[in-house]
Every structure is written in C-alpha cells, then in structure tokens.
Specification:
It is built from ten helices and eleven strands. With 298 residues, it is of the alpha/beta class. The chain has a single domain, classed as UDP-N-acetylmuramoyl-L-alanine:D-glutamate ligase. The strands form two sheets. A nine-stranded mixed beta sheet has the order 2-1-3-4-7-8-9-10-11, sandwiched between helices. The radius of gyration is 18 Å and the shape is globular. The N and C termini lie far apart (44 Å).
C-alpha cells in the first residue's frame, strides 16, 4: 500500500451462531467485536435465547430445520456472496443445521476461495474437579464434528471440546498440541488450554508454521463469552495481516483486559460497549512462547 493511500476496505464476515437478547455471548459479542473493528456482519442466528443458559432456564426458540436450511440456501444463492471475506460458525440449535451451514460455507468458498472458515465447536466445557460435559445433545456435537470441523481452516475448541473431538486425553500442553494436530486443520486454537504457570490461562495455537502459546493470569469467575470473543478477535487479526503469534497475543490481551475490567466492575456479562477500547487496542501484557513440536509428537 502506497504511503498516504486509504486502507483497504474490510470485507464482511458471515456469522452463524446463537443470539441472546441480554448479554454479550455468542452472536451478540461476535457481531459487536467484528463491527467495532471495521467489518460489516451477515448474521444468521441458529437459536434465540433471552440470556445465557447459565443465568437460568428460559424460552428457547429454534427455527424449524427446513426453514433454517431455506434461508441458508437463499444466502448461498445471493449474487453478493463474493462480498464475504470470512465465515464463523458457533453454537447450533439443532443437529440438522450443520448440513445447511456446510452447504453455505462451500458456496462462500466457491464465490471467494480466499475466505477462511472458522468453526468454533461450541458443545461442552470442563467443570473442574467434576470433569467435563457436553451441554448440547450428542447428535449436535457429532454433526459439528463430522460435517463442520473437516471444512474449517480454523477450529477453536476449548480443552474439553478438543478431547471430545479427538477422543484423546487433554490434561497437559503436550497432549493438547498432539490432539490439535490430529484434527488436520490448518490452524487449531485451543482456548483455555492447560497452562505451564499456576493460576494462569493459556491459549495454544497449532498453526502451519509451528505452535505458539499465549498465557496470562487467570481471573476467578469470569463472565461467559470469552471463547466466542477470542475466536472473532483471532480471525480479524489474521484478516488484518498479522502473523499467527501476533494475532494470538493481541486477541488474548483483549480478552484478558475485557474480562478483568468487567469483573472489576462486578458485571455478570462482558462489558463490550462500556469497555470497547479493550477490543480495539488492549494495553494488557500477555506473554507468548514457541512450543516445540517434537515433544508433542513423541
């Protein structure tokens, strides 16, 4: 780009995930983050909820499978599909949605082969001493594993989800890296990966040029939505031209800072609007280091 020339216009991102009325999880946080960083967003909700299920039981509206597939097909046939610069999928409301999303991803790729697809396989989490569990029906988790993960350029599971996807134990950094490599995707970002330091959170990236981990201090009782946030931030950082390590460090710093600021103010949700500068340019320091592949493959 010539000095003084305007920056290239950022392409829209297609987001396919859940929507809540209150709070910043999933589609709400992703859409805010991507738009705040300059991307228009095409948003296809998979389910409508009043709030995060962790805040209590409530009405759940899932579009009928046929109607969801029909609107996905409409988008796939859009003459403007080549505008899309990337696709993100997350929480599914029904296992049948996976096939419709897969067809939509393939259509985007046909229109714009350079558009990366990020699959955030939202299906479960580690409950600490009680072990991990799926919080979606097993059929939904299997549909994500079998129909969406293989299409993805980037997959962003947490440690429990990685273990479930690969049928491997993931309790150490080396186990996480080995499991990530078995998926076969170009980039696998393991969120909340086992950290080397005590009382720390690690995000481990297995990429085409090696593996890198970013660590920061753990914050007790963080609000929900950090996995959605780091997935969106990492993607937009890559789209902006950052290398893997810088994209990971910057994304991790933003998540850490936004969580810290939200917790300090006693919020039960991430304060996207109030603390949006953390999304744009975080001041928090996050350490990163290269992870040796030979140990993971031994």
């Amino acid at each position: 780009m010539q000095p003084g020339a305007p920056e290239p216009r950022k392409k829209p991102v297609l987001v396919v995930t859940s929507q809540v009325v209150r709070g910043g999880i999933s589609g709400r946080g992703l859409t805010f983050t991507l738009e705040r960083l300059g991307h228009a967003v095409w948003f296809l909700p998979t389910v409508l909820l009043p709030w995060h299920p962790g805040h209590g039981k409530a009405t759940r509206i899932v579009p009928p499978a046929g109607e969801f597939a029909a609107i996905a097909a409409d988008l796939a046939a859009s003459p403007r599909l080549d505008e899309i610069g990337a696709v993100v999928s997350g929480y599914l409301g029904d296992p049948d949605q996976a096939a419709a999303i897969a067809r939509l991803v393939k259509a985007v790729k046909a229109a714009n082969p350079d558009a990366p697809y990020l699959c955030d396989p939202i299906m479960g989490d580690d409950l600490g001493d009680n072990g991990g569990t799926l919080y979606v029906p097993k059929a939904t988790a299997q549909a994500i594993r079998d129909e969406l993960v293989p299409l993805a350029d980037i997959v962003t599971p947490n440690a429990f989800e990685l273990g479930w996807l690969t049928d491997r134990e993931v309790t150490s950094e080396m186990q996480a890296l080995a499991a990530a490599r078995t998926l076969g995707n170009e980039r696998v970002l393991v969120t909340s990966s086992p950290a080397l330091r005590r009382n720390a959170i690690a995000n481990l990236l297995a990429g085409p040029r090696g593996a890198v981990a970013a660590e920061h201090a753990a914050i007790p009782n963080p609000p929900h939505g950090t996995g959605d946030l780091i997935a969106g931030l990492f993607l937009t950082n890559l789209l902006s031209g950052l290398n893997d390590e810088d994209a990971l460090k910057r994304a991790s710093a933003s998540v850490f800072e936004l969580v810290a600021r939200s917790v300090k103010k006693g919020a039960d949700e991430l304060l996207f609007a109030e603390e949006q500068q953390s999304v744009v340019k975080a001041m928090a320091l996050v350490t990163s280091r290269r992870v040796l592949e030979t140990k993971a493959r031994a």
